[in-house]
Design goal:
about 210 residues, mainly alpha, about 0% strand, 8 helices
């Protein structure tokens, strides 16, 4: 078994509701479940990335728990904030979800590189960062990232960290299993992020601001 097949909740387990509604609780649980991947990339260097991701999960969750019956889907939370005219307010759930989807795109990009056979973790991370988060970051944050990426583990160490049983990663079966798990996991993640992208585009919620 690999890390992705042992997750309690995964994007690939999520069943969309009517009108492509993304269930809030299952989505947030799937986000939490992927956070340990960052630990496996190096707990110290990836701390800022992890803090950002977890912080945004918590902000969306805080909004969700104010009215679970009403906010069953992510779309309902965003549309509620759009109607209340607070979507663009700092620390809104809509803003938190904007950064959360950006962070997930970075992770998705990285895992896609690995799935496609990139054996250099630093290269995989750099490519993913360049295509996703980099454009939203000012030079200070880019510097923090550059530092984190330089400290990335070797491919062997990273894959070993994703195995459930020690020594498994050396087996051919593990690589096949990891490919299989990622080919279920990544398209599901991709689909949900695309739904959110469309929602944000339609309501003009994307932002060019850098941090």
């Amino acid at each position: 078994p690999t890390f992705f097949s042992t997750m309690n909740t995964s994007f690939s387990d999520i069943e969309l509701l009517e009108d492509s509604g993304i269930p809030t609780e299952a989505f947030l649980a799937s986000c939490y479940a992927v956070v340990p991947v960052l630990d496996k990339l190096g707990p110290t260097v990836f701390a800022p990335v992890k803090m950002d991701l977890v912080g945004n999960i918590k902000k969306v969750n805080q909004k969700y728990i104010t009215n679970k019956a009403k906010f069953t889907t992510l779309q309902k939370i965003v549309l509620h904030e759009v109607e209340a005219d607070v979507a663009q307010v700092r620390n809104s759930a809509t803003e938190a979800l904007l950064w959360l989807k950006r962070g997930l795109k970075f992770l998705k990009g990285f895992l896609t590189e690995v799935k496609n056979g990139e054996k250099d973790i630093q290269t995989a991370l750099n490519n993913a960062y360049g295509k996703t988060l980099r454009q939203h970051h000012g030079w200070v944050v880019r510097g923090v990232f550059a530092l984190a990426l330089r400290a990335a583990p070797s491919y062997e160490d990273f894959v070993a960290a994703l195995t459930v049983k020690e020594g498994d990663h050396q087996k051919e079966a593990f690589s096949i299993g990891m490919q299989r798990d990622l080919s279920l996991y990544l398209p599901a993640m991709e689909k949900q992020l695309a739904i959110l992208d469309t929602l944000y585009e339609v309501h003009g919620l994307e932002s060019d601001e850098v941090v």
